[in-house]
Design brief:
The chain is of the alpha+beta class. It contains nine helices and seven strands, in the order E-E-E-H-H-E-H-H-H-H-H-H-E-E-E-H. It has a five-stranded mixed sheet. Strands 1-5 form a two-stranded antiparallel sheet. Strand 6 and strand 7 form a beta hairpin. Helix 2 runs parallel beside helix 9 and helix 3 crosses helix 7. The N terminus is likely disordered.
């Protein structure tokens, strides 16, 4: 089922220094997190957020994917159509593909912090592991169990325990990521995941054949 983005759907407690245990949130409705105590959205510095991408920076077509790590349709896309897109368009220099996180719930936020902990060079390899294991870690049960399953994925990707804990407890980074997500989602009017912005034009989820047809049109290869 497509997940709809609702503005200001939930009110959560403020994220305090070092605390990464967020309040309870649903798994079907994205959240708009408040910023640091006493701060306005414009005061949150998002300049340090790294755009996670694969493909040549000067590729003729740019694709931006908006996705949540707890979205089943996003997992299906990454374990299927994305691999074909990468092989046929990204690796051939035709497309630059950008992955931007959307936050439906706290578990997706934790997964995002772990994925980014590995750095840009290993980000796509790690999110591949996160999406492949989604049905297991996202249904592990308690908050502690889910967090531990995500830690296991991080360790399998080569992250040390100290690095994992530092990333998971980085409240300033999380506030910046949330502000960055809100800015991007507003700019592109993102209301469901996965959503795609292909050379500035927004598209909903689709299979590889339809995606390929759009890319070929953009590339002038009809």
């Amino acid at each position: 089922m497509t997940r709809k983005i609702l503005a200001a759907a939930l009110t959560l407690v403020l994220i305090l220094g070092g605390g990464w245990w967020l309040t309870r949130a649903t798994t079907s409705t994205p959240v708009e997190l408040p910023m640091a105590a006493g701060a306005q959205e414009g005061e949150v510095d998002i300049s340090g957020i790294v755009e996670m991408s694969v493909g040549a920076e000067d590729a003729p077509v740019e694709v931006i994917e908006y996705a949540s790590f707890t979205c089943p349709h996003c997992a299906t896309f990454h374990t299927g159509p994305f691999k074909q897109i990468k092989e046929n368009y990204v690796d051939t220099g035709k497309v630059r593909f950008i992955h931007r996180e959307v936050y439906f719930d706290k578990y997706g936020m934790w997964a995002s912090l772990i994925a980014r902990c590995a750095g840009p060079d290993r980000y796509f390899g790690l999110i591949d592991m996160i999406y492949k294991g989604q049905s297991e870690w996202a249904r592990a049960g308690s908050d502690v169990a889910i967090a531990n399953e995500l830690r296991k994925i991080g360790r399998l990707a080569g992250l040390e325990n100290d690095a994992l804990e530092a990333c998971l407890s980085d409240a300033d980074k999380l506030r910046s990521l949330v502000a960055w997500y809100q800015k991007n989602a507003t700019e592109h009017d993102v209301r469901a995941t996965p959503s795609f912005v292909i050379d500035g034009e927004k598209y909903s989820n689709m299979n590889y054949e339809d995606f390929s047809a759009i890319l070929d049109e953009k590339l002038g290869e009809e």
